[in-house]
Amino acid sequence: MLLRRVTAQCPQSLVEFYQDVRDQPASEPVGRLMLNLLQALEEETSSQFVWAATVGTDLLLLQKDDRRAPALAVVQAKTRWYFIEAPLPKDQEPWPEAWVKGHTDSVSQAVGMLEKAVSWHLRD
Fold first, then answer.
1. How far apart are CA 74 and CA 62, in angstroms?
2. Which residues, 6 or more positions from 9, have their beta carbon under 8 angstroms from its beta carbon?
3. d(CA 14, CA 6)
4. Which of 49, 76, 109, 110 could form an S-S bond across to 83 if both were Cys, CB 3.0 to 4.6 Å?
């Protein structure tokens, strides 16, 4: 998956942002986890292009180059865990605007969760 930070948050890349987060003693685990996730997403074989923004230390995957655009997924990293939330596809919502939540301590499982969330809303 190819992530590009929204224009409004450039010129700092996502990697540079999370390197800064990692370099702060209080947020080192968050920065480390997110850098591992970014690397794994980059190495993943899908060529799907997705916009991304940061809010605090959270990573938002977006439908377009606008940090206010509907999120495809939201990732939070804490201690050793990835917490991922994503809106369900309209045809699977038990009620309007329903979201699914999950967590994992595996970067490869986090990548799979994000691939699934993005695939619900974007097509290659």
1. 9
2. 17, 53, 54, 67
3. 10
4. 76
> What does 53-100 look like in DSSP terms, one character per residue?
EEETTEEEEESSS-TTSPEEEEEEEETTEEEEEEEPPGGG-SSTT-EE
pLDDT digits (tens, 9 = 90+) for 35-70: 999 999 999 867 889 999 999 999 999 999 999 999
Question: 99-104 and 71-78: which strand pairing?
Answer: unpaired
Residue spans per domain, the chain: 2-121
Residue pair 65/57 in contact by the 8 Å Cβ criterion:
no
Backbone phi, then psi, for 55, in 5-degree steps? Answer: -130, 110
Q: 1-14: per-residue pLDDT in tens?
A: 989 999 999 899 99
